[in-house]
Specification:
Structural class: mainly alpha
Mean pLDDT: 76
Strand content: under 5%
Helix content: 40-55%
Order of helices and strands: HHH
Low-confidence stretches: none
Number of helices: 3
Distance between the termini: 87 Å
Radius of gyration: 31 Å
Shape: elongated
């Protein structure tokens, strides 16, 4: 019995095992496209929310996507009009 026959008898062959393709395949490309579309679909409303929160209120639905002037007055109005005594700073009511 030769060494090659011994290897074959143990269930292994002398051939190299088949390797998975490491390059871009059609399924990987489609997966990347789908993930990119989902990422944009998730991120766009968040970006829109932040951009509209720092715009003047009369330019929320008009004008370009990026605001020309930034005003944080909406945040100061919310903090001034909301009763946050004992709720946000860790002190119980």
């Amino acid at each position: 019995m030769t060494a090659g026959a011994t290897v074959l008898a143990q269930g292994r062959s002398n051939d190299r095992p088949a390797r998975r393709p490491t390059g871009w395949t059609a399924s990987r490309g489609m997966t990347a496209v789908v993930l990119a579309v989902v990422a944009v679909a998730v991120a766009l409303p968040l970006v829109w929310m932040v951009l509209t929160s720092i715009r003047p209120s009369n330019t929320v639905f008009g004008g370009s996507f990026l605001p020309r002037s930034f005003t944080p007055t909406a945040y100061s109005q919310v903090w001034q009009s909301t009763d946050t005594s004992g709720t946000a700073c860790g002190s119980p009511r």
